[in-house]
Amino acid sequence: MEPKPPFKDHHRKKEGLTVKLHTIIASVRPTRIGPAVARWFHDYAVKHGKFDAELVDLLTFKLPIHDEPEHPRAGNYAREHTKAWSASVAAADAFAFVVPEYNFGPTPALLNAFTFLLREWAYKPCCFVSYGGLSGGTRSVQVTKLMVTGLRMMPMVEGVAIPMVFGVLSQDKQTFTPNDLITTSAQQTLDELFKWATALKTMR
Fold first, then answer.
1. Given CA atoms 51, 174, 111, 179 in this order, what sign does their dihedral have?
2. The whole model's pTM is what?
3. Is 15-203 CATH 3.40.30.10?
4. Which of 49, 105, 120, 193 could disulfide-link to 89, CB 3.0 to 4.6 Å?
5. Contact 78, 69 (CB under 8 A)
6. What is the DSSP string of 89-129?
7. Where are the domains of the chain?
8. Lowest mean pLDDT among 9-18, 46-55, 127-136, 160-169
9. Which CA distances in Å does 83 have to 75, 77, 113, 142?
């Protein structure tokens, strides 16, 4: 059984850091390996030094299929799970979505999470850390980019793609060990994300 780490303890508040980055685990499957990849990227973002970084697990919000009585553009939420999700997304200046690939596309849980909100996403940059088999989850990313632009997010050209992911996981699937190419991709992605996050703050 997969342990449930205290994700809130991964939040590192640093004085003077003004860009709030949420690394979001997009898979909610019981057999998921996303937390291992996400913990690595979150820790790397903390070491990067320019972000107030927080690790967010989509599973903890327990979002059902969209059940709000009003359109999200109104921001008049009736459900407690929506209010909690809204507060989390609104608090961020940038997002890193840690995504697997399901049938050449993104997870239904992530797409559902997008549809609960509208204004909370707008004018914020996002990047993708994808994992999978030979494609490294890149087909999932391409599909998801179409949706985030409709929410007025700015997806980064740079990203982290992890092919054949089980080859870089520990035997218990709890620890992810990147190679040099993956680490370099993370550095370049975070550099670009910081530039966009700083610039887009002026639009909100």
1. positive
2. 0.90
3. no
4. 120
5. yes
6. HHH-SEEEEEE--BTTB--HHHHHHHHT-STTTTT-EEEEE
7. 15-203
8. 9-18
9. 9, 6, 12, 29
